[in-house]
Amino acid sequence: MDLLIARNPDPDSRLPYLLRIPLSGGLVFRTSGTWPRENALYCYPVSTDEWPAHPELVERTPLRSCTRRGAAIDLVLDRGRENRSQLVFTTARGRDAVFWQSARTRKQARPSVRLPTARAAGIAELEIVVDTREQYPYRFTGQQVTVVRRALPVGDYGVTSAGRLVAAVERKSLADLVGSLTGGKLRYLLADLAALPRAALVVEDRYSQIFKLDRVRPAVVADGLAEVQVRWPGVPIVYAETRPLAAEWTYRYLAAAHAWADTEDAAAARIGPAIGDLAQAPAAPGPSSAEIRAWARDQGLPVSDRGRLRPEIIVAWQTAHGS
Q1: pLDDT bracket for residue 108 (50, 70, 90)
Q2: Which of 49, 35, 52, 30 lies closest to 97 in space, CA to CA?
Q3: Is 309 helix (H, G, I), strand (E, B) or coil?
Q4: What is the DSSP letter of 197?
Q5: Chain mean position to CA 30
Q6: CA–CA gap between residue 18 and residue 260 (Å, rounded)
Q7: DSSP code per residue over 224-267
Q8: Inter-helix orientation angle 311-320/289-298, to 10°
Q9: Considering Cα of 98, then 103, then 107, then 112, what sign does the dihedral take?
Q10: How far is CA 170 from CA 138, 157, 210, in A?
Q11: Which stretch of 16-20, 66-70, 154-158, 168-172 has the lowest confidence by average pLDDT?
């Protein structure tokens, strides 16, 4: 029982190797490499008829084990190193897909990190403002967070203190980061963020992935990011590896910024006039019409389902919330 890897005789195929697994009479896949060392390898299943009668073998390794476990096939090769891997049957963008991964690549894709549930900065219930233009916002599941949807002047997530927007975080995927950098939008964004007392940009990926880009020169991206970081040093760019880790970092950062703003306000009240950047912070974003409607219904006030809110409803909300 051997694992066989041969060169793909089809010159037009973008997957240069054929992988044969001795399971269920033989399974054959087209794939892009001979072992998933750095990244999981995409495998395209084909008929056993595609296996050549006289294959040009690249590797032939005895198998200690080849078993199917749910939606995966576990492979244990009879050698000392790089001996454990699995073929995972899944879906990608709505289509069936197979990926060949090792323990190393699986750990990189889904790091074994258990996120803490302790309150950030000791805040019992942190209110985070999420920009209404954010389509798939963080839910901050498992944290003591109240989320409100309002239009932010800059950033995707923010916190307020004493009626001012004191901190914001902009969220970006790696593709979005590269696109905004090469298109010139990132500089304007960082300039807007730098106008806030505290701001940051969090990226849902590893910095190392920049050097694996194939549609733009990695050096151009790395130089551009270094340049904007030097120009706007007060707006850190943080690479959080995964979306859950990015959400966790955003929660912790905003909680720390909120605690800092409260401390600065308390110090200003005792020492003297308002402290610099807090005094220059923009006013906190006002409530959305949907938020006011929901509050009015809870209070038993008559309110229409659509259209403009009556002035007395807005005044009632402002009075109740000290605005």
Answers
A1: low
A2: 30
A3: coil
A4: S
A5: 30
A6: 58
A7: HHHHHHHH-TTS-EEE-SSHHHHHHHHHHHHHHHHHHHHHHHHH
A8: 80
A9: positive
A10: 12, 7, 19
A11: 66-70
pTM of the full structure: 0.61
What is d(CA 260, CA 3) in angstroms, rounded to the nearest whole number? 59
Alpha carbon distance 323, 315 (integer Å): 9
Sequence-distant (≥ 6) Cβ neighbours of residue 99 within 8 angstroms? 40, 41, 42, 43, 87, 88, 90
First to last CA, the chain: 75
The number of C-alpha atoms within 13 Å of 117 and in the hemisphere containing its C-beta is 2
Residue with the larger pLDDT of the pair 231 and 90: 231
Range 75-83, long-range pairs (CB < 8 A, 24+ positions): 75/3, 75/21, 77/3, 82/35, 82/37
Q: Chain-wide mean pLDDT for the chain?
A: 87
Residues 6+ apart with CB under 8 A from 184: none
Nearest-10 Cα torsion for 215, 218, 219, 224:
90
Angle between helices 218-231 and 185-194 (to 10 degrees): 20
- CA distances, 257 to each of 60, 305, 323 (Å): 57, 37, 22
Q: CA-CA distances (angstroms) from residue 87 to 50, 69, 84, 154, 236?
A: 19, 10, 11, 44, 39
Amino acid at position 160, single letter: T
Which candidate, 168, 112, 321, 137, places its Cα nearest to that of 247? 137
Over range 20-43, report the average pLDDT.
Answer: 88
Q: CA quadruple 129, 147, 140, 176: dihedral positive or negative?
A: negative
Give the span between the Cα atoms of 198 and 278, in whole angstroms. Answer: 9
